[in-house]
């Protein structure tokens, strides 16, 4: 976010900035979502909804799981949230007590670590590398629990993952879910990049484990970042617990965003067109980044990120990011946020932007590195 703020300042000052720093889709929300929001604004009767969202949107999401994953889901198990960020807050508050150990992959999304630390949880970061197919495994969880000297109370896994792009295969996801269930470990599945899988198996943990907590969002595939709308699927016994916390923290998700989100669920033809544009950007980066000396550090199977090794040029990814922005007006994210131990040698490039911007950014970086 610091890099993004500096990029915004430079753009406002007239510099030709290309941002590859955040997971911000270049495309607008689907046309159906925009039209539904316009109609709602015309009558203007927008207010509080139930704390966990409107029944209409919950039913639409349940229908989505039926059509996409073959899961018959009770809509009452769906909780609408103010973005996936609110979902993570609710999950950590509802499932854990201060001092509990919760495992996440390293590298991983930094907000996991930061939110849990703020809540007094013990964050157990487990290296995910080529030996583990860049994901968590029962064996890595077992080793981590032994090193922590305390049992794990929770495991959080993202697939597709940020920043690595890892898609955890169904068999590996099943092994993790089975391990957690056998030890009464809460399993949280971050599925916010579902719909943006380019290689591998995109599996919802709900196809495997009915007792897991799923967090998803309209921000990425549905191109609705600024609408701040997401959802969770909860075990039936946990719904009331989450509802009571949500009532106190958020009152309710914004009704306008819920109306737009329901319409967006039917816009797959338009959204899959956007996905094809990301796939073309992905192909460009897969080719160009290694050519200019930035080797791919992990799979680019899903989401819209390239996580690259910059150790050929720097041992300080933050300084590298600042200099790249200052000298060629290309913004990217230092790896240090995602990996406090090894991230000084890595960078994350988002390819969610327009095709022309992505090509121009690669050209600028190539000339700069020479």
TrEMBL record:
It catalyses: L-aspartate + 2-oxoglutarate = oxaloacetate + L-glutamate. This is aspartate transaminase. One of its GO terms (biological process) is amino acid metabolic process. Pfam families: Aminotran_1_2. Its cofactor is pyridoxal 5'-phosphate. It comes from the Bacteria. Keywords: Aminotransferase, Pyridoxal phosphate, Transferase. One of its GO terms (molecular function) is pyridoxal phosphate binding. It is an enzyme of class 2 (transferase). Residues 17-365 form the Aminotransferase class I/classII large domain. Belongs to the class-I pyridoxal-phosphate-dependent aminotransferase family. Its EC number is 2.6.1.1. InterPro entries: Aminotransferase_I/II_large, AspAT/PAT-like, PyrdxlP-dep_Trfase, PyrdxlP-dep_Trfase_major.
């Amino acid at each position: 976010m610091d890099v993004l703020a500096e990029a915004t300042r430079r753009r406002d000052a007239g510099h030709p900035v290309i941002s590859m720093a955040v997971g911000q889709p270049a495309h607008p929300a689907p046309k159906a979502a925009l039209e539904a929001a316009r109609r709602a604004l015309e009558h203007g009767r927008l207010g509080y909804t139930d704390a966990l969202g409107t029944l209409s949107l919950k039913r639409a999401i349940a229908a989505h799981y039926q059509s996409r994953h073959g899961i018959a889901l009770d809509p009452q198990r769906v909780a609408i949230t103010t973005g996936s960020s609110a979902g993570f807050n609710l999950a950590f508050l509802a499932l854990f007590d201060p001092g509990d150990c919760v495992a996440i992959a390293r590298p991983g999304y930094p907000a996991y670590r930061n939110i849990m630390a703020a809540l007094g949880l013990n964050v157990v970061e487990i290296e995910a590398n080529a030996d583990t197919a860049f994901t968590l495994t029962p064996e890595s969880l077992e080793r981590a629990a032994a090193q922590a000297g305390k049992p794990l109370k929770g495991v959080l896994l993202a697939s597709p993952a940020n920043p690595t792009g890892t898609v955890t295969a169904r068999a590996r996801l099943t092994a993790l879910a089975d391990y957690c269930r056998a030890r009464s470990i809460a399993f949280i599945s971050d599925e916010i990049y579902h719909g943006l899988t380019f290689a591998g198996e995109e599996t919802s943990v709900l196809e495997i484990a009915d007792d897991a907590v799923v967090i998803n969002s309209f921000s990425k595939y549905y191109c609705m970042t600024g609408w701040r709308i997401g959802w969770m699927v909860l075990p039936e016994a946990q719904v009331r617990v989450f509802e009571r916390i949500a009532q106190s923290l958020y009152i309710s998700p914004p009704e306008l965003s819920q109306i737009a989100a329901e319409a967006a669920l039917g816009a797959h033809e338009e959204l899959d067109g956007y996905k094809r544009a990301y796939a073309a950007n992905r192909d460009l980066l897969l080719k160009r980044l290694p050519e200019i000396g930035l080797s791919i550090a992990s799979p680019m199977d899903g989401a819209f990120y390239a996580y690259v090794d910059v150790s050929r040029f720097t041992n300080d990814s933050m300084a590298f990011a600042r200099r790249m922005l200052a000298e060629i007006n290309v913004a990217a994210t230092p790896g240090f946020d995602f990996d406090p131990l090894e991230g000084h040698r890595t960078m994350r490039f988002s390819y969610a932007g327009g095709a022309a911007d992505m090509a121009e950014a690669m050209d600028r970086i190539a000339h700069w590195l020479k």
